[in-house]
TrEMBL record, chain A:
GO terms for molecular function: iron ion binding; oxidoreductase activity. This is 4-hydroxybenzoyl-CoA reductase subunit alpha. It comes from Roseovarius litorisediminis. Keywords: Molybdenum, Oxidoreductase. Transmembrane segments: none annotated. It comes from the Bacteria. The gene is hcrA. It is an enzyme of class 1 (oxidoreductase). The keyword NADP does not apply. Residues 28-134 form the Aldehyde oxidase/xanthine dehydrogenase a/b hammerhead domain. Its EC number is 1.3.7.9. Pfam families: Ald_Xan_dh_C (PF01315), MoCoBD_1 (PF02738), MoCoBD_2 (PF20256).
Automatic annotation (TrEMBL), chain B:
This is ThiS family protein. It comes from Roseovarius litorisediminis. CDD domains: Ubl_MoaD_like (cd17040). InterPro entries: Beta-grasp_dom_sf (IPR012675), Mopterin_synth/thiamin_S_b (IPR016155), ThiS/MoaD-like (IPR003749).
Amino acid sequence: MPLDQNSKRDFKVIGKRVLRPDGIDKVTGKAMYGADMTAPGMLVGRILRSPHAHARIVSIDTSAAEALKGVKAIVINADLANPEDEFFADIRDNCLAREKVLYDGHAVAAVAAVDKATAKSALRLIKVKYEVLPHVTDVDEAMKADAPVVQEGRADESAPAGSSQNVTSHFEFGHGDLDAGFAKADKIIERSFKTAATHQGYIEPHACLASLGSDGRGELWCCTQGQYNVRTICSEVCGIEASQLRVTASEIGGGFGGKTTCFIEPVALALSRKSGKPVKLVMTREEVFRATGPTVSSSTDVKIGMTSNGRITAAQAKLRYQGGAFPCGTVEFGAQAAFAAYDLEAVQTLGWNVMTNRPKEAAYRAPGAPMAIFAVESVVDELCQELGLDPLETRLKNAARKGTLSSYGPTFNDIGLVATLEAAKAHPHYTAPLGENQGRGLSCGFWFNFGGNTCVSLNINPDGTVGVVEGNPDIGGSRASISMMAAEELGIPYEKVRTVITDTNSLGFNDVTDGSRVTFAVGLATIKAARAAIDNMCERVANIWGIDRDAVEWVDGAAQPAGPNAGSHPPMSLAEIAAVADQTGGPIAGHHEVNADGAGVSFGVHLCDTEVDPETGATKILRYTVFQDAGRAVHPDYVEGQMQGGSVQGIGWALNEEYIYGDDGRLQNAGFLDYRVPVASDLPPIETVILEIPNPGHPYGVRGVGETSIVPPLAAIANAVSRAAGVRMTELPISPPKLLKAMSERG
Amino acid sequence: MVRVKLWGSLRSLVDGQEFVEVEASNFKQLLDQLEQQHPALKPQIKRGVSFALDGVIYRDAWFTPISDDNEVVLMPYMVGG
C-alpha cells in the first residue's frame, strides 16, 4: 500500500501525544497478565529440569510421584505429538527433553497437582537416571572438529564439509574484489571480538492457564507476543486441530522477541488433557534464565581497509554465533546487517550458526545485528583514531544512500542514514566538551523491518463510536497508535475509538508482534479497514440523498456532497450515519486482510559519552542521544520510548549483562541479583531525535521503530569506553573487572 | 528473462554463478523455475526465502509481478524480534 499522494497533509491526530489507553489499568494493578487468570478446579503445574549440561536420559520413573496424594498428572516428552516439521519438533523437544538433555535447565518432566507444595514434592519423587556426556558452551570450542556433538545430523547443505556437526549452517554475502580493495588501503585493521549471551530481561515471567478437555477442545490464556503463533505451535506439538484451540493473549510484561515461541504452553495443555482439569504454569525467574531463550553469543573477526582520507576500500567480517542446543537462523541477519550502513566497493561477510549446550536461542530485538555491528563499528572507530579522522565525517563519507549497492545484495532506494548522521552532526551533543577519563562513542545501526500477515476489523458502533479489533499483543503502545490511525482516517476524535486485541477464534491469522511490524502493518490494515467503512457509509448517504455514490465524499468525519452538482445536503456525521444503520442496511464495518510488504529498512545513529573510573574499572554513562528515522511518528511518546528502551537494553548488554557458565556447563547467574540489568540510577536521561523520512510503502509513511534502537548501543558504548580508557575493548560486557584489567595491562 | 542475484553461499550450489536467469513474471514462477533449473537450491527455498525487488523486501508474496527490468535479489527468510 503506497504512500498517500497527500502524505504531507495536516494530520489532526497523528503526531499527537494522546493518553495511553492501558495506562490506568497498568498503574492500578487492574491489567490482567499471564499469571493473573484463574479457573475453577485449577491445578498447579511445575517442571522438573536437568541438572546437567548434556546427558542421555536412561530412564524416568514417575511411579512414586504419581502415588503422591494430590498429584493429578505427570507428563514427559512421549505425551506430546510427533510433528513432521523439524521446527515444531525442536520446540517440542525443548519443552520436554527427548532422549537427551541438552543444557542445564532443560525440562524433563512436568507435574500437575492440587497445590504448589504438592507439585514441588512430586518433582522430588521423579527418578531420572542420566548418563552424563561431555558438553560445550563456547562457540569457538563448539566449532572444533573434536568438540562434543550437541545433536547429530542437524547440519544443512550449506555447512562446510569436514566441520564439527555443531555447525548447522553457513552464509556468505557481499560483492567486489576484496584483495584489490585491501591493496588500495593506507591502513588496515583486523580485530577479533566476542559478545556474551544476554537475556531479553522482560519483567513478566512466562505464564499460562490451559484447559484441554477429552473432547479435544482447548482454551489457553498466556503471555505471548503472538497468540496465533502459540496456537500453531501447540496444535502441532499437542496434536490438536487449530480450530479447537482458542488462545487468548494476556497483557504482556515485556517480550522483546523472547515471547515469540513456546516454552511451557504445550506442557500445560498436555497436563490439562491428562488430568482433565485446568492447569496453571508460571515460570520462576530462575527458570526464565535457565530455560528460555537468551540471544546468541558471538565470536567475530573484522578486517577493514581505509585510505588516509577516510574512504573504506574493503571490508570483511567472519561471524560465528551459537544459538544453544538446536539449529538457529540468526547469523545470516548479522552477516547481512554488518556493513549495511556503508557504501562499499568490496565487502564480504561470512557466518556460521553453531549449536552448544545452552538454552535454545530466542529472538531479541533485531536478532543478530547488534553483535555484528559492534564489531564493525569498533574497527571503523579505531581506524578513525589511527588516521586522525572525525568518526562522524568518516561515516558520512562512506554512508550508504539511495543508489548504493548494499552489502547484503539489493540496491537501496530511499533510506535515511545520511539525514540521521547530519542530525547527529548538528546536535550540540557532538561538540560538547569532554573531561578527564571521559570519551565519546558513535555508532550507526540498521535493521530490516517487515510487515507480515495482518487482519483488522473496524466496527462502527450504533452510538457513533468505533471499535477496532486486531490480533497483535500490544508491547509498545500499538493500541494507541492503531486507534489514532483509525481516528485520523475517519475524522473523529481519538477518544471515540477503542482498539482491543482479540483471541485466535475471533479474527483471521496474524503474525507475531515482532519485526517492528505492528504500527506499520496493523496500521496499514486499519487505514484500509477505515476506508472500507467510509465507502460503505458514503454509499448509504448517497442512497438517503438519492444521488450517486461518486457524488458523496468524506470530509472531517462526515459525508458531504462532492461538489455543486451533487445537490444541497447538510453533511451527515459518522454518528448520524451510525444512528440510522438499522434502516440503511444493518451494521457498518470495514475490514482488511493482508500479508503486508514494503516495511522499509531503518537506520539509527547513537552518540554516547562515558566516564571510566581508573580505580575500579566502572563505567558511567554521562550522556546518550539517539537519532532515528521513524518515517512518521504516529505517537511520539511511544517512538521515543522504543528508542530509549532499546538504548537501555544495549547499555546493559555492553556493560554488565552476560550468561556465565561454570566448567560444569551450569548457568551460575540465573537471577537479577547476579545478572545485572541497568536500573534507573545507572542511566542518564536518554535524549531522542526523531527524523521523519516517509516510508513509501505506507499510506502515512510509517516505518517500524522497535528494533533498530538496540543495534548501535553496543558499539557506541564500546567506542566511548575505549576512547576514555585509552585501550580498545573487544569483548562484551565491558564489566568493571574486565576494564580494570585492560587498563592495568595498558600501563 | 529475470536476472536473479544469489547470496554468496548459494553460489556454490549453482556452479559458482552470482546471477541466474529464469523465465518468470511473478515470484511464484521465479521460485518454481529456480527449483526446476537448479535443484540444489530446493532445500533453501523449502526452508524459506525472501526477495528484494528494486530494493523493497518481500517475504511470501508469490504473485508480486516481476519484469526483466527489475533488480531481483534472493535473501534469507526475514525474521524479527
